[in-house]
Every structure is written in C-alpha cells, then in structure tokens.
Amino acid sequence: MLGRIRGSAIYIAALSLLHCLAWAAEDLQAQRSYAVELPVGFPKPRIPADNPLSIEKIALGRFLFYDVRLSGNLSQSCASCHQQARAFTDGRPRAVGSTGEIHPRSAMSLTNVAYATALGWANPLLDSLERQALVPMFNERPVELGLSGKEEELVDRLRADLRYQRMFAEAFRGQSDPFTLGNIVKAIASFERTLISGNSAYDRYVQGLDDNALSEEAFFGGRLFFSERLECFHCHGGFNFTASVTHEGNPFDETSFQNNGLYNIDGRGAYPPDNTGLFEITRIPSDMGRFKAPTLRNLSYTAPYMHDGSIATLEEVIDHYAAGGRRIHSGPYAGDGSKNPYKSNFIRGFVITEEEKQQVLAFLQSLDDPEFVTNPRLSDPFQLWGCVSDCNYDFVVTVDELVRAVNIALGESSLAVCLSADPSGDGDPTIEEILQGIHALLAGC
Amino acid sequence: MEPWMRTLVLFLAVAVSGPGAYVAQATDTSGRFDRYGQCAGDRNGDGQVTVDELVAGVNNILEGCGHVPVAIRFAGRVGQEPFQCGTTYSGVGRNGGEFVPSDFRFYVSNVRLLTSDDREVAVLLDQDGVWQLEDVALLDFENKTSPCVNGTVQTNETVRGRVAPGAYNGIRFVLGVPFRRNHGDASVAPPPLSLTSMFWSWQAGYKFLRVDTALDAYHIHLGSTGCYFAQPGVVGGCARPNRAEVILRPFSVEDDVIVADLAALLADSDLNENKEGTPPGCMSDPGDDDCNVLLRNLGVDFASGQPVAGLQKFFRVEPHH
Fold first, then answer.
1. Residues in contact with B269: Cβ distance below 8 Å, sequence separation at least 6, in sequence order
2. Inter-chain touch A148–B278, beta carbons under 8 Å
3. Coil, strand or helix: which one is B312?
4. Contact state of B203 with A131 under an 8 Å Cβ cutoff
5. Residues of A in contact with B239 (CB under 8 A)
6. Range of the domain at A217
7. A384, A416, B4, B184: which could form a disulfide with A56 (CB 3.0–4.6 Å)?
8. Of B151, B203, B276, which has the smallest distance from its Cβ to A149's Cβ?
9. pTM metric for this prediction
10. Pairing relation of β-strands B81-82 and B281-282?
11. Nearest-CA residue of chain B relative to A142?
C-alpha cells in the first residue's frame, strides 16, 4: 500500500504535466465529423442527411451493437448473430433468437453493409440501416431480440448506465433527452457503416499494392468467375461482389433479387413455405424464390451458405451452379431446382473440371479479409483490448493517448476519442484509470 | 394574397389556436421542429404551414365554438363476457376451443358520425399526446397483467373529440392506420404510433389490430401487405391495404357502446388448426388461409385486401349502462 502511494506521487506529478499538455492540445475531435477510411477504389457510402457520421455515434453504436441489454431477456445482442470472427454471421444455417425461436433464414454477413440497397435476404422495403435495426429489435415473427413492447424498459436500462449517460449526451448534443429509440438506431447504424472490408488479397492485387497477392490459381479462378461460362459476375459483380449496392452520388438503387434454383417443390417453382423470398412481400408469382445475391467477400468465415444455410461448403456451391440448380431427391422439399420456372436465365449450368473448380475456390478465398474479422475497432468494446488508454489498440500507450484520456476526464473531449480510457465503464476516466494508463506508458503495455 | 392579409390571417390563427385546438397539434416526423412538433398550424404535419391550412384552422376554431365534445365508447368482449387478460374463455371458434387472450389492441381512424340523411360528419379527435394523433386513435383493452406482458398498464376504451352538433344515428370509422401515417419513421413517431409492439417493421408499417393468445400461441396481426416503394424510402402503395371500413347503425353516442367481440371475430376459425408452414393464426400473410375467415369477419376481402360493406361481424352496438 505504502509503495503504491509513493509510486502514485510520481504518477501524480506526471499527471499534472499531462494536464497542462491537455489544455494545450485542445482536443476538438469531438466536434469534427468523422469520415470512414475507405479502401482504394471504394466509393463513398451514402449517409442519410439526418444521421451524419460522427465518432461519438459510431462509438455509442458499437457499444449498443454488443450490448445484451438490447434483448428482452438480456441474453442476446446484435453481435450474438453477427459475430466479428465470422464476418458478422453466426455459423448457423438458421439464426436462433433470444427466446430460442428459430429464424427461417441465416444471419447475413454485415460486410460492407453501408452500401446495401435492400437489407435482408429479400425485403425491398428495408432500405436503411436505421429502419432495419428495428426489425431484429421488435419483430415477433420470429422473435430475435424480443423487445416488442419493452421500449421503455430498454431506455430505462440504458439510461441507468453511467457510460451511456455520457455517450448519448456526446453523440446527440443539445438534446434534452437523448435516450430515444430514434437515437439508438441512429447510433447502431453509424457503427454498421464502419464495417468496411476491402483489404483482401484480391483488393491488394487490384489496388496495385501487391502484384503477388493473388496466387496463380486464384488469378485463373477470377477469370472463370468473370467469364460468360460461369456467369457469376452478373449477380455478384462490382467492388462488393453483389448487384445490390449504391453509394453517394449514385442516383440509382439497384436491387436485384434472383432465383438461383435451390428448390422446386411442386414442379411449378415453389420454395419452402417459410422462405418464398421476394414473393413473401410482393405476392407476385414470378418473385417466388428470388433472394438478394449476397456479397461474396469473406465467405471462408460465413459458412453455411444461402438464405437457409442449406449448402455447407463452397465446393458444393460451385457444384450447385455447375448443375444449374439443386436437385433434392427425397423429403418434403424434393424437386429439381434446375427446372424452377422462375430461375434466372444466367443460371444455366456449365461444365467445369476439377482443376477449374479449385481455381474458382481459390479466387473466392482471395476475397477473405483477415484484418476485417480481427480489427479491434470493430470488436466488442466491453472487453478491454490492449491496455488502459491504448486508444488505437496498438498495445503501446503514448503521451498523446494519455493526453486524450486526461481531456476526456476533464470533459474537454468526448469518451469516443479513447474508449479504453474508461475500462470500468462509469463514463469517466478516473484518477485510478489514468494512473493505469501512465503505468502502461512507462512500463509498457 | 396581400401581405397585410397574410399577416391578419396569421394573427388570427395564432390568436385562436389555443390549447385543445386541432390545428395547433401538427406533428413533425422530419425532426425539423421540436420532438412532437411545435409548428402551429401545420395541419398535415409536412413541416409547412400553407394558407389553406391556416384558413381551415381558423374555420375550425370559429366553428369549433359550436362543436360539442363527444366520447365514443368501446368495449372489449369475448362473446358476452368482458375482455380480460388471462381469462380462459371457452367455446371460442368453429370447434369451440379454449381461448386465453394475451393482447388486444387496435387503431381506428377517420371517425365520422352519420346523419339520418347519410351525411358523414368528421369527429375532430382531441390531440391528447397519448392515445390520439391527428385522426388516429388507439384502443387498448389489455393492462399488462399476465399474460399480457407485451402491453401497457394504461388502457383506453374511448375515442374523444369534437363534432358539429347534429342529429346523428350512426358511426363510421376505419379499422387501421391511414396510409399517410402508416409508413413513416416508426423510431421517431409520436404516440400512439410509438408503441413498438404495434410496429410491423418487417412490412414497413403498423399492426392495425393485434390479438394474441397465451394458450397454444395464436396471433392475429392485421396490417397492410404487398407494399412497395415508389421512390427510394417512400412507400408508394400496398397491394392489400387490409383496412376495414366499419359502419354501425343505429348508433347513439350518448346511449350506446361499440362492442369489439373477439368471439365474433374468431367464430369461423379453428384455434387448434393452422395452415402448415405459416405462422400460428394470421399475420395477414396472403398465403395463409387461416386469415381468410378472420379478415371476412373484419369486413375485408382477403384476396384483394379491400373492404367489403356489410361483411364485418367484429363490431356491434349495444346499449350502454
């Protein structure tokens, strides 16, 4: 204890020095609007005018995304079904909600979701991340987070948290009561807009950063992918390998929903009754089985595949397309998907050698972005990454980072500039926490 | 219009739009004003006050002096018995099953009283900031006691407003949220459109009617389906609006109550039967045959989603005591 206090004296001396530095550094980051760093060749995502990005909203949204208080029974958060290590999917064929109810569909990857035009496997009505977030929160068919009717309880839970008191106030300045449903979904959407993945081997190759990034096998696989024989690029084209994208300055929202021949239950094109695709919303017969062609980035992390997780491996996916559809021999869903009358005419089947198959596979794997699935900025903020006051998660605490922490403590900066300055979660880097930061600065992280 | 006239109209509008006046309660979903809209005179909530709106407002206030308050009573029932969360009602449905309700709420809108010569006179709803917004009201019979856990403690069995004095012998209203209010941003909507249990985010709208059961989950969630965007983010229409037009006659505001009877609604359904592959009950999914008879008893043709006169059995008039 004594030694600790003596040590503290030195720390406090250092602290007062930092105080001065802090004033000098006048950290205005809080007010500065945040621009997401984009990979070369990526257009700017379209950001709704009423929800401009800010580091405060992004940080708050990150907490909310990972917070189990966002489920009725405190068992699930968005991240339960959208896990970073799995490129924000859950590894299950069909998602399971907080009350155990099984979702008819598979949790989708949130890779580059900032560019998506229609959210979900087949819902043209979900056009913004803000609107979409209400679905898992309040939907009852199926129950996901199970918050229907519990909006007051939710807000009360969040309001009781000291860290949220600070973060909501900083993210939504000037509002007398920032704890609203509208603000919750705005913050979550802001965080989702930072889920940008563009650092795969393929990206480094096309950006000209590394001519050797693509193996020869993957290179030839790419040729096949973009060929008129395989036709993959028609539906999985563009920088995000999906046709359903838009971006800032683009007046068009191209949403394409396609039937790729997975089912044909009655010989007249039927899909399983709980998964009829676009038809479920529009009731137009030819919309039967039409789903969004999802991004093909990060596939190695997102198995199993398709809207109902009914294809386990990428080899089988390629076999599926080579056969021009899937034939199910027995069971309730038996039928020849390749003869589905609503199937896209780009899915005609093709002949492919084993070697070529491996090439296509290698190409698909070259779209994996290991950095994306480990990026600490996208990770669970309730877990301390690195050490106290290591704001940029590089396992080194610098004077600049400590200055930030002190500024936060002084109320000069928002908490968002250094989430790791407050591991205890009381919304304030306490003396104790700053001392820990100083310790990390002096003794290493 | 001359500038001085404009000033006069504005002055009049502001001077007379005191508390309780409909025109002063315009709501804002654009976020351009304070949370629930402070833009006096913006009658349609579009964030602009047009001269028409002002004139209408002024007229309302002038006429409003002659308007009389009305309180239209509703009652939730299961057959002859009052609705109560968790009560076991027997003999409900085609095959007389047991029924334990766990929710019972619905929106009505565009409430009109009918004169004997078939004129429709609009009831201007009190803008109470809780149950009524513009011409929409939420009726809520559940009180959150078990098993109505998704609900609210507060209940509401009355629609309150003002109407021009007259001899009325009937009533007409829509069961549902009007199109113009159905597809806005639910996350910032004012009450009673702020209740998440009535959100139907997946269909980009609201549940117009919500009835749930505790025993062998059976749900009735009525709402518009087949909606589509006219332009990005703006719902242009819905293939099946599923809004019922209810006409009840004779009906006296003073002496009668409008009974909403779940037994009558479920009379042709089998609570223990469910079309395979569809949710238990009816969530307005056009592929779900369980909806057919339910929508008929609400007065809606299931195939088209359009109201059909004279079909509904859910509502009836009884003397109030």
1. B93, B94, B290, B293, B294
2. no
3. coil
4. no
5. 282-283
6. 201-365
7. A416
8. B151
9. 0.82
10. unpaired
11. B279
Nearest residue to A107 (alpha-carbon basis) of A86, A89, A123: A89
Enumerate the residues of chain B whose CB falls inside 8 A of the CB of residue A276.
287
Tell me the shortest Cα–Cα distance from B179 to chain A, in angstroms: 15
B201 and A128 in contact by Cβ < 8 A? no
Question: Which chain A residue shows the shortest CA-CA distance from B31?
Answer: A50
Q: Which helix (H) or strand (E) holds B228?
A: strand B225-231
The rounded percent of chain B whose pLDDT value lies above 70 is: 78
Chain B nearest-CA distance from A70, in A, is 14
Beta bridge mates, A368: none
Number of other residues whose CB lies within 10 A of the CB of residue B118: 8
Same domain flag for A227 and A310: yes
> Sign of the CA dihedral A349, A355, A358, A363?
negative
Q: How distant is the Cα of B235 from the closest Cα of chain A, in angstroms?
A: 8
Would you give the end-to-end CA distance of chain B in angstroms? 54
Residues A350 and A393 in one domain: no
Query: Is residue A306 a part of any domain in this protein?
Result: yes
Does A270 fall in a domain? yes
Q: Which two tokens stand for residue A417?
A: 């500039």
* A414 and A332 within one domain: no
Cβ-defined contact of A127 to B187 (cutoff 8 Å): no
Q: Which residues of chain B have pLDDT under 70?
A: 1-48, 52-65, 216, 232, 275-279
Tell me the per-residue pLDDT of A328-344, one tens digit each, with 9 for 90 and over: 999 999 999 999 999 99
Asked whether the predicted pLDDT for residue A403 surpasses 90, the reply is: yes
Provide the residue count of chain B: 321
B77: Cβ contacts below 8 Å, ≥ 6 apart: B83, B259, B260, B261, B262, B263
* Contact between chains at B150 and A148 (C-beta distance less than 8 A): yes
Q: Alpha carbon B112 to chain centroid distance?
A: 13
Give the residue numbers in A contacting B (CB under 8 Å), as ranges: 50, 123-128, 130-131, 134-135, 137-141, 147-151, 180-182, 184-185, 253, 272-274, 276, 280-283
Q: Which of A141, A151, A185 sits opposite B279 (nearest CB)?
A: A141
Residue with tokens 């909806």: B291
Domain final residue, candidates A336, A365, A394: A365
State yes or no: pLDDT of A351 exceeds 80. Answer: yes
Shared domain check, A212 and A358 = yes
Note the pLDDT of residue B61.
59
Q: Do B196 and A138 touch (CB under 8 A)?
A: yes
Do both A221 and A281 map to the same domain?
Answer: yes
Closest residue of B to A176, CA-based?
Answer: B35
- Beta partners for residue B168, in sequence order: B115
- Tell me: cis bond preceding A341? Omega within 30 of 0 counts: no
Q: How many domains does chain A fold into? A: 2
Q: Is the dihedral of CA A298, A300, A301, A304 positive or negative?
A: positive
List the single best residue of A128, A281, A282, A333 to mutate versus B (max B Cβ within 10 A). A281
Q: Enumerate the residues of chain B whose CB falls inside 8 A of the CB of residue A61.
A: none
Chain B residues with CB inside 8 Å of A128's CB?
233
Task: Verify that A356 and A233 share a domain, yes or no.
Answer: yes
The DSSP bridge partners found for residue B200 are B205
Identify which of A51, A60, A111 has the alpha carbon closest to the alpha carbon of residue A82: A111
Please give the DSSP secondary-structure letter assigned to residue B198.
G
Secondary structure of residue B57 in the 3-state scheme: helix
Average pLDDT over residues A102-115: 97
Question: Which residues in chain B touch residue A253, judged by CB atoms under 8 angstroms apart?
Answer: 232
Decide if A357 is inside a domain. Answer: yes
User: What are the pLDDT digits (tens) for A299-339?
Assistant: 999 999 999 999 999 999 999 999 999 999 999 999 999 99
